[in-house]
Amino acid sequence: MTAQERNGRTFTNEQRWWLDRIAEHIGVNLSVRTDDLSVGEFYNKGGQFAAVRVFGDGLSALLDELNVVLGE
User: Left, alpha or beta for 41 (phi > 0: left; psi -120 to 50: alpha)?
Assistant: First the structure.
């Protein structure tokens, strides 16, 4: 169980795919921006538009949070 799940936040399988790839991206590039979601594997899954569909209006806040937590 992840820390997010312990705090009552759950993710769909599709969201988990995006989160795992975003975490990998941050591990290599030290951060992720919304524009980064339009290249590579992200592009193949629908890019930035698909990410917005999957996470809704909270995408930018989620990316900010992941940059802080995983970029440390």
Answer: alpha
pLDDT in tens, the chain (72 residues): 466 666 778 899 999 999 999 999 999 999 999 999 999 999 999 999 999 999 999 999 999 999 998 875
- Domain extent, residue 59, equals 3-71
Number of domains present in the structure of the chain: 1
